[in-house]
C-alpha cells in the first residue's frame, strides 16, 4: 500500500462497513476475483446483504459467531464456470463431495456442503476444509499444489500460496493491491462502494 493511501486509511473509520469491504474484498468488487471471504459484525450483516444484492453479488453465511459472521461473497455465473473444470471436480470428489452434486455442477449444493464443513471446523478446530481455495477462486494448479504438498514448498506467497507461474501470480497480486488503493481513494472522495463494482484499473 502506498504511503498516500496508508495515510488516507489512517483517517478512515475502520468500523465503517464500506471501508472494511474495500480492505477485505477489493479484488472481488473490482472484478479481478469472483469470490471472497468476508467477516462482518453481526449488527452490520443486514446492510452488507443489501449492498451485495444491489451489486448482484451472491452470498452465503458460513459461520455465525457471537460477534461476527463469516460469509462467502461470490459472483455466481463465474463460479459456475469455474466449477465446470474437470480438475476442480476431481479435487472436490477426492475431498468427499457427493459425486452427483459435483457432476451436475450444483453450485448451491457445493456451497452448502462447504459451509457445513467450514462451520464444523470452526466449532471443533478439526478437519480444515482445504478445498476452500476452490471456493475462493484460487487457480486450480495452486490448489492442487497446496494439497499435494500439504501446504509446504510453495514458490511464492501472496493472497494465496503459489505453486506455478510465479510471475503471472505476482503481477495479479499487484493488481489486487492497486484495486484496493483505488477503491479506498474513491471512498475517501465520498463515492459509495456500490458504485465501484468492476471499476476500470
Brief synopsis:
The chain has helices at residues 3-11, 17-30, 45-54, 76-82, 86-94, 99-103, 107-124, 132-135, 140-148, 166-188; strands spanning 35-41, 58-64, 68-74, 156-157, 161-162.
How big is the Rg?
17 Å
Q: Can you give the helix content as a percent range?
A: 40-55%
What's the multimeric state? single chain
> Overall 3D geometry?
globular
Order of helices and strands: HHEHEEHHHHHHEEH
Spans of at least 5 consecutive residues with low confidence: none
Strand content: 5-15%
Question: How many runs of DSSP E, i.e. beta strands?
Answer: 5
Please give the order of strands in the largest beta sheet. Answer: 1-3-2
How large is the count of helical segments?
A: 10
Structural class of the secondary elements?
alpha+beta
N-to-C CA distance = 16 Å
Protein name: DUF3793 family protein
InterPro entries: DUF3793 (IPR024523)
Organism: Lachnospira intestinalis
Describe it for me?
This protein has helices at residues 3-11, 17-30, 45-54, 76-82, 86-94, 99-103, 107-124, 132-135, 140-148, 166-188, and strands at 35-41, 58-64, 68-74, 156-157, 161-162. Strand 4 and strand 5 form a beta hairpin. With 201 residues, it is an alpha+beta fold. A 3-stranded antiparallel sheet has the order 1-3-2. The chain has a two-stranded antiparallel ribbon with strand order 4-5. Helix 2 crosses helix 10.
Amino acid at each position: 500500500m502506498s504511503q498516500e493511501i496508508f495515510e488516507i486509511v489512517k483517517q478512515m473509520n475502520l468500523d465503517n462497513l464500506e471501508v472494511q469491504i474495500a480492505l477485505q474484498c477489493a479484488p472481488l468488487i473490482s472484478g479481478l476475483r469472483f469470490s471472497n471471504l468476508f467477516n462482518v459484525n453481526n449488527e452490520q450483516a443486514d446492510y452488507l446483504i443489501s449492498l451485495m444484492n444491489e451489486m448482484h453479488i451472491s452470498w452465503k453465511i458460513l459461520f455465525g459467531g457471537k460477534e461476527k459472521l463469516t460469509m462467502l461473497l461470490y459472483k455466481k455465473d463465474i463460479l459456475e464456470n469455474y466449477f465446470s473444470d474437470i480438475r476442480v471436480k476431481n479435487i472436490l470428489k477426492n475431498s468427499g463431495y457427493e459425486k452427483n452434486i459435483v457432476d451436475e455442477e450444483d453450485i448451491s449444493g457445493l456451497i452448502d456442503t462447504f459451509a457445513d464443513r467450514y462451520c464444523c471446523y470452526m466449532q471443533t478446530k478439526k478437519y480444515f476444509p482445504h478445498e476452500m481455495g476452490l471456493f475462493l477462486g484460487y487457480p486450480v494448479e495452486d490448489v492442487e499444489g497446496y494439497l499435494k504438498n500439504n501446504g509446504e514448498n510453495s514458490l511464492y506467497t501472496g493472497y494465496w500460496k503459489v505453486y506455478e507461474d510465479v510471475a503471472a501470480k505476482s503481477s495479479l497480486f499487484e493488481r489486487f493491491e492497486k484495486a484496493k488503493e483505488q477503491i479506498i481513494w474513491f471512498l475517501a472522495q465520498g463515492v459509495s462502494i456500490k458504485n465501484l463494482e468492476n471499476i476500470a484499473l
